[in-house]
Amino acid sequence: MLKVNNLHQYYGGSHILRNVSLKAEIGKITVLLGRNGVGKTTLLKSLMGLVPIRSGSIEWQGRDIARSTPYERARAGIGYVPQGREIFARLTVEENLRMGLAYSPAGTKIPAELYELFPVLQQMLHRRGGDLSGGQQQQLAIARALAPGPRMLILDEPTEGIQPSIIKDIGRVIRMLANRGDMAIVLCEQYYDFAEELADHYVVMERGEVIASGPGSEMQEKGIQRLVAI
Ligand SMILES: Nc1ncnc2c1ncn2[C@@H]1O[C@H](COP(=O)(O)OP(=O)(O)OP(=O)(O)O)[C@@H](O)[C@H]1O
């Protein structure tokens, strides 16, 4: 279980995250929503240790990891799929997947399961990452994060700029991973319908603060879409 308590973060003098608290349970999908620029990516980067926080705690599996390096967090079982995918364009699909295993306690063999989740990656194993379509790159980025067998998967806008058929495939994989019951999923998403469909829990941010949260099944009756409509 992830427990974030009273997180504050600054970029220079700009107070970006304001007293943010949230939880993400194993076996559940926690969806983070909010308009552009409210601090969602900054929150996810803070969870991964990619930006320092000013104060607050980030507890993962009972341990405060708020001061741990990204490397230590990866070793602690946290996987991260960044916004914009950040795959290595000049490396092959296979090499990209191996990069996901660079610090893995699970060994250096690419798990065959990744190709079951995303069959296209097996077909394209020797293609360069940069030659893949946006949707294929997104699948590669997710597979790379899954390669070391994380217990928490953080995804930053996986549907951004991706064609509908691949969005459906990605949604199915995310649901399947959660249903296995051994992984917490934190999903930041602008595409409201996708978010609502997947959410077990939702968290809405505005100007760096959490302004609403609850079970995914209540998103419609609570009018959450209005809070995040652009
Ligand atoms: N490296 C940085 N240095 C200074 N300010 C930053 C930096 N990165 C983001 N910001 C600012 O922090 C605020 C929150 O940005 P963030 O990217 O976390 O928002 P977001 O909710 O993820 O938005 P989006 O949906 O557009 O990605 C914005 O005002 C942004 O301009």
From TrEMBL:
Protein name, as recorded: Urea ABC transporter ATP-binding subunit UrtE
Family annotation (InterPro entries): AAA+_ATPase (IPR003593), ABC_transporter-like_ATP-bd (IPR003439), ABC_transptr_urea_ATP-bd_UrtE (IPR017780), BCAA_Transport_ATP-bd_LivF (IPR052156), P-loop_NTPase (IPR027417)
KW Ubl conjugation (keyword) present: no
Pfam families with a match to the protein in the record: ABC_tran
Domain ABC transporter: 2-230
Keyword Iron set for record: no
Entry-linked CDD domains: ABC_TM1139_LivF_branched
UniProt cross-references to PROSITE patterns, sorted A to Z: ABC_TRANSPORTER_2 (PS50893)
Source organism (scientific name): Comamonas terrae
GO MF terms held by the record: ATP binding
Family that this chain belongs to: Belongs to the ABC transporter superfamily.
UniProt keywords, alphabetically: Amino-acid transport, ATP-binding, Cell membrane, Membrane, Nucleotide-binding, Transport
Classification of source organism: Bacteria, Pseudomonadati, Pseudomonadota, Betaproteobacteria, Burkholderiales
